[in-house]
Specification:
Layout: E1 2-3, H1 16-25, H2 40-74, E2 76-78, E3 89-95, H3 110-123, E4 130-135, H4 148-156, H5 167-178, E5 185-192, E6 210-215, E7 224-231, E8 242-250, E9 256-265, E10 268-277, E11 281-289, E12 295-302, E13 313-320, E14 324-330, H6 336-343, E15 348-354, E16 368-374, H7 379-390, E17 394-399, H8 405-413, E18 420-424, E19 428-433, E20 455-456, E21 459-462, E22 470-476, E23 481-488, E24 491-496, H9 511-523, E25 533-534, E26 540-544, E27 555-558, E28 561-563, E29 566-570, E30 573-577, E31 586-591, E32 599-604, H10 617-624, E33 628-630, H11 639-648, E34 650-651, H12 653-673
Amino acid sequence: MQFLYPTFLFALTALAIPIILHLFYFRRFKKVYFTNVRFLREVKEETSARSKLRNLLVLLMRLLAIAMLVFAFAQPFIPQNAEVKQGQKAISVFVDNSFSMAALSQNAPLLERAKQRAREIVQAYGVEDEFQILTSDFEGRHQRLVSREDALNLIEEIRLSPASRELSKVLTRQQQALGTGRADTQTAYVISDFQQNAADVQNFRDTTLEINLIPLQAVQERNVGIDSAWFEAPVQMLNQTNRLLVSVRNYSRDDADNVRLSIRYEGQNKPVGTLSIPGMSAVTDTVPITPLRTGWHRAELAITDYPVQFDDTYFVTFNVPDAINILIISEEAPNRYLNAAFAGMQNFKAENQLSRNIEYSRFPSFQLIVLNDLRAVSSGLASDLREYVTNGGNVLVFPNRQADVNAYRSFLNTFPANDLQNFDETPREIGSLNTEEFVFRDVFENRNANLRLPATKGNFRMARGNARGEEQLLTYRDGSAFLSKYRVEQGNLYVCAAPLNEQYSNLAQSGEVFIPMLYKMAISAARARQIAYTIGRDDVIEAAHATNRTDMVYKLRGQSGEFIPEQRIVGAKVFLSISNQVIDAGFYDLQLRTDSTLATYAFNFDRRESALTYATAEDLRSRAGNNVNVIDILEETVLTARIEERSQGIVLWRWCLILALVFLAVEVLLLRFWRV
């Protein structure tokens, strides 16, 4: 047995007081008158013996009562396995309030159980100790130490949040806050369901901080959510049906049946279908969408699931442009086949420019740039085209028969792409067409039908071996490339090995290949336009800069209000930093003025909290090692006594007080009922 405050043991000297009183008080004699002196000796002997015994028992009770009272102030305890710390304490309590804590325990949501555990932890310490209450939001007001009363008030204010934090980052935050205090002892508690994808306690290396993990377990680990959605074609066109692919995932091990998927689009709710999803897998359903107007569109996908519901909706936005702008750069006269092809496409607008009068500043406004029959590509044009493709543009190259091979080699190497070599005038036929790639995918109803593929009377040989990411779209019978595609960051470069001039190629006359090829190239993109953003993960969004002025302030307006994001203007684009200002899923309008909307963005909650797979107490112990204590107790067990035992050992001061009262009561009984 040890004492928390051993200096109080000096008060045991007070035991001398009742002893002194006993020695002097009980030596006084009292006269007793007897009528018959014959019985005087016998009565005197009997009364003296009983009185002496009672006085000794009274003295003993007083000594024991005083001793127990002194021991109570000295706070005796029996040490346990954990080392008992003395002095003022600083305690940090993290309460996981991410969406997975909405799952049910035996009789309440996990978040309510976590708050109750947090209250029990705080109440296990003294009023002089300091506390930090931390949540997944990482709010600034939670980065300081407060009193016990304030800590209990902060616990009551905790609500579910879309934020999700790795365990190592939580412990780092707790360590920083505890370091601001002057307490002798620093202890961290983490109350969470400890999902597998966030329980990285092994990444926290500090060995000086006492860490206690308190895992909570949901009764029912069942959850179905909309994982993601994307369009099959990266660009949505007016009056053209585009398929929206929706991935619905079952995060539990049991099969999920009769999961109803619906969509809200253009003010109408439409059922899509009923899904059956095997356990721990996902199914993809298709929602056809046909835009009937230009501009920004909103769509909200939804399923019905309980109790975890934050991932049951998925918001999507997309823009239908008024026109697809095409730029054709020619050295001499424009190509009549190109003009005729784009003129026959609805909502396509082609513009011709000569190579000597190019407006480089307008490149970002075009979806496709065609280099038609240029003898050489200048270094300035090559540099601007490289930047244009990098930022998401598409470039199609038809070289001139008399092309400067060295100039083209310098131009293509900037991407990089295969080099042009010598021109071969051997007639050749196209042997195959790549229907797996986006340009020719879903173009032909019958892929096995005998298509009339183009032929050439001459072409440039293409060097092999130095290309990065080449994908052949049209191939000669000998396997060499006629038309190749190169992905360059966000855009695409298409290179044809033969001139478009009808003297050397009949590609322009092959309408069943040429027309869909130009159409799909114009709407293609190496990276599809983002139709939804993830809260907490996508901190920067990109938009077209709507004005030449740099002093205009962009705003994002949603259902919960509006805010001004940090903005950075680069050329014709503006980059907006969200910085955790979006906290609610939904639609947000980008505005310069309140009466006009420049763009609409969809934000969804992070699906990382959807996977209800937890790290068990054994998993946490194996990951953490000896530096971390895992407190695994039954749900109905009160945590306060457990913490007191760990922080102070088996506390005995309450028993000392009880015994002191018992001894005083025995003394009273002896004096009251033991008559001498």
